[in-house]
Design brief:
With 358 residues, the protein is an alpha/beta fold. The protein is built from 10 helices and 15 strands.
């Protein structure tokens, strides 16, 4: 009797497909006509699968090791290593990204490609020990949409979404976050600078997306305040109007000249730290993202000129470029952008640690 029960249990498990049980992943699920769909890009990235998509033929190729999966948007038929697999629901487009039904994940992807389990990056110290407060500035907003991609993706929406994801990560690390905006509202540049300076934060990070008439341009870049911005002029103005947040600043209380010298030193220091921070963010982005890293540049952006702390403006990609607009639509990719920025800040903080305890 026991043997019969055991045999029956094995048969039931086999029929139910336990040998190819779906891989459980923390991925967003989209409901289309009552059916669960996944972002194809997110699925491929989690497995290290190369994804190539032709926007004209609407066909995609998934390649890893010796396996190839071919599919077409709008079609139920997919080819898995040249063998036909008919899905109950078709491959589709949702919010500008390719999405596939859960059946595709379970029958095509899971048997061939395992989820890559990247080891967690060890934390050598709490981030909040050296970076206690950060101002995050989602560029544009409200009546100012910023750049707009060919398919209608607005920069202001991309900036805010990435900024919120980044803010959540900072808070998890024990860092206080000040957002210049939390919703789709217009905030003047001067007000953004005022919010940053009144916060007395350790860092200012402005999030933007790029655009250019040359649609082939693409890549990730970080800006710091240009050396052409006159620090002496800024320092003289600051000496008259702003409080020196230094414990030993009382000795300069009656000397505008000495105050100006101190402010000039602060601005020079901040520029050097901004360059270092920008390089660390670019390095982390290069490690995590399959995009061109343009590098660190200087510019005279108002939010960089006005802030009195290390400050960077990050251009996460070109909305004018078809591939990067598609990437920036993907929530999984925005997560990777936020994580890259956080890791760059963490590397920057480690240098502060070395300087402090040297």
């Amino acid at each position: 009797m026991n043997k019969k029960l055991l045999l029956l249990l094995v048969i039931i498990l086999f029929i139910s497909g336990c040998a190819t049980a779906p891989v459980r992943e923390a991925l967003p699920v989209y409901s289309l006509n009552g059916t669960a769909y996944y972002s194809l890009s997110a699925l491929c990235q989690s497995r290290g699968v190369s994804l190539k998509y032709d926007i004209y033929t609407r066909t995609a190729n998934l390649i890893k090791d010796n396996h190839v999966i071919d599919l077409m948007v709008g079609d139920n038929l997919v080819l898995v290593d040249k063998r036909a697999l008919l899905l109950k629901y078709p491959v589709d487009m949702h919010q500008g990204m390719i999405v596939v039904p859960a059946q595709f994940k379970e029958l095509a992807l899971d048997p061939l490609f395992k989820v890559a389990r990247a080891p967690a990056k060890p934390r050598e110290m709490p981030l909040g020990l050296f970076i206690k407060k950060v101002v995050i500035d989602p560029g544009h907003g409200g009546k100012d949409p910023g750049a707009i991609g060919r398919t209608g993706l607005k920069e202001k929406d991309v900036n805010l979404d990435i900024a919120k994801r980044l803010a959540n990560r900072f808070r998890q690390e024990g860092v206080e976050v000040i957002m210049t905006r939390n919703s789709d509202v217009f905030i003047p540049l001067g007000k953004r600078v005022e919010i940053a300076n009144n916060s007395r934060a350790d860092l200012f990070i402005s999030i933007h997306a790029n655009a250019n008439k040359t649609r082939s341009l693409h890549g990730f870049e970080v800006y710091y305040v240009s050396p052409t911005v006159n620090d002496s002029t800024r320092a003289a103005y600051a000496a008259k109007h702003f409080y020196l947040n230094l414990d030993s600043s009382y000795f300069a209380s009656n000397s505008q000249t000495l105050k100006a010298i101190l402010w000039d030193m602060i601005y020079t220091y901040n520029r050097a730290k901004s360059i270092s921070l920008g390089r660390d963010i670019c390095r982390a982005a290069g490690d995590n993202l399959n995009v061109r890293i343009i590098g660190v540049k200087d510019a005279r952006f108002e939010v960089l000129r006005g802030t009195r702390m290390p400050a960077v403006l990050i251009e996460v990609g070109f909305l004018s470029n078809a591939r990067e607009e598609q990437l920036l639509r993907d929530g999984h990719y925005r997560d990777k952008l936020a994580q890259s920025i956080l890791e760059g800040v963490f590397d920057y903080a480690k240098k502060l640690q070395l300087l402090t305890f040297a």
